[in-house]
Amino acid sequence: MAAGFLLIICGSVLHLLDPYMLIFKWKLKFEEGSEIFNLWRTPPVDLYIKIYLFNVTNAEDFMAGRAEKMQVEEVGPYVYRELMSHDEIVFNDNGTVSTRPHHPLIFQKSLSGNLREDDVFMMPNIALLSIAHVASKQGYFIRWPINMLIRQTKIQPLERQTAREFMYGYPTTLTTLGNTFLPSWISFDKVGLIDRMYDFDDDFETFYTGEPSASMSGLYDTYLGSPNLAQWNGRHCSNIRNASDGTKFKSFIQPDDQLLFFRKSMCRAQRLIQNGTDYEVDGLKATKFVFEDNALDNGEIDPRNKCYCREGHCLPRGLIDVTSCYYGFPIALSYPHFLDADPKVLEHVNGSRPDPLAHRTHFMINPVSGLPLELSVKFQINMVLGDLSSMTNCEKFSNLVIPTLWFEIMMPGLPKTLLTRFIFYLKILPVGDLVVKHSLLAFGGILLLVAITKVSMTLSSAYSSAYRISNELRESLW
Fold first, then answer.
1. What's the Cα-to-Cα distance from 46 to each of 251, 413, 416, rounded to whole Å?
2. Full domain range(s) for residue 422
3. Is residue 281 located within the same domain as residue 199?
4. How many domains does the chain have?
5. How many Cα atoms are found within 13 Å in the side-chain-facing hemisphere of 262?
6. N or C end: fewer C-beta atoms under 10 angstroms in the chain?
7. Do the beta carbons of residue 422 and residue 414 sit within 8 Å?
8. Mutual orientation of helices 126-135 and 173-181 as an angle, nearest 10°?
9. Quick check: is 277 in a domain?
């Protein structure tokens, strides 16, 4: 009987303490050499960026005034593998870890079809249009040498470039001139959108280790030493604390939880809302997250988003001004093909075809571990130009919104080795844990029942014997 009671007590204690969850929470914490820390430090996943360029098909006609609007066509994807890592790691005493991000890109010929980096297209001259936009707001004596150089070199706002030149830049006299006449603006010798987007040289970040809350491991504490981005005013727009860089999200996600996702190229943390919980990806339970509605409305619908208006100037709905994050270039982000943007934005050029099925972002996240099982993040980089009537060769580009490229950062799924490991952690071990708990309770109950039965039988036998003896004594007396 004692053994049965002991097994029942053990089973009950296991149910209360939940050793599987205790061990799982312990494994979520970052410690030097721990499994989850090593996975976060150098994620062994297939992470790609797909880049789609917008080739201008009527460049000569537009610049000559024979066409009212530019006509663009999408070309892509140019696929690169991103070898993401967290380097120069230091564990701090306050439950955080400091690191420098590293995101080198490697071109994937086999995934890019017939496209090659030396393909030639007619593309916007980012250096000229950016310098013209900035110089147009300066005095005559700043504009004059720039205009003179443009006339002498006959440089044009649209020019033939290879795909790689457009994405990664090439040395140009304009960047040197811009640095000379507009000091402290340009500190590099070439202008390329992907090159600038993946410039992490001076970045440093801190992330939570999961001490004391294991669910928060791998989430941002600070970026560049602060929980707030310097380019925005107000916590709603500037906060990146508790955001994920996509490596790991919050663990133990509840049905009403919202998440944050931050990448330097986005210039902000984007709020994620749940869009269904009844999903399974490669055998693992998943919750689908998407960007919240009206995230790029600049306060037109959600007044809180007014803080995304730069220097009090609000761009049309669907565009977010990220000039401060792209070295002063007149850059705005949108969703691909101006999805969800003010219809007037689409009128600037011909060729945009927004498609919700093709251009929306989604994340499939395991709600227990916070592990991303699949992700697809999509944004478009645009130039938003002001009045360029005072800049040589650029007059036709005044007050235009020009799409340059859109990109998709995507992870199609977990590699088999990592998937097998997490299926064991998230599916097999919990079942084994339940089997052990219920087996202890059941076996303890059986032992207790056997013991009670034995005691009952013993007592019944003793009662029968006593009754027989009593009868025999009674008969002998008579």
1. 22, 8, 11
2. 1-32+415-477
3. yes
4. 2
5. 25
6. C
7. yes
8. 20
9. yes
